[in-house]
Amino acid sequence: EPDVTIVSGLKDMVVFEGDDVTFRCQVSHENARDVEWKLQDVALQNNEMNEISVEKGKVHTLTLRKVTEQDIGTVAFRVGPHTSTA
């Protein structure tokens, strides 16, 4: 299995309370395994508040819905040993 690396990392975002925000991270290979999203060191699951998806096989996205002040902090995307934060 090829070593999947991060081609395009996360970018810092500023949003207003109640808005949605989307983070994108592009990886080098499709169907990457061992992928994880975190907010403030807490692993995120796909649910009604966090939409986790993959576009075009290589672009992993995380949408945080209706953010609140408690959502302030570091978002991290990890694939294997590689990490990007915003």
From TrEMBL:
Ig-like domain segment(s): 2-86
Keywords per UniProt: Cytoplasm, Disulfide bond, Phosphoprotein
GO cellular component entries: cytoplasm
Localization of this protein: Cytoplasm
Pfam families given in the database record: I-set (PF07679)
Chain segments annotated as coiled-coil in the UniProt record: none
PANTHER family in the record: OBSCURIN, SI:DKEY-31G6.6
Full protein name: OBSCN protein
UniProt gene name: Obscn_2
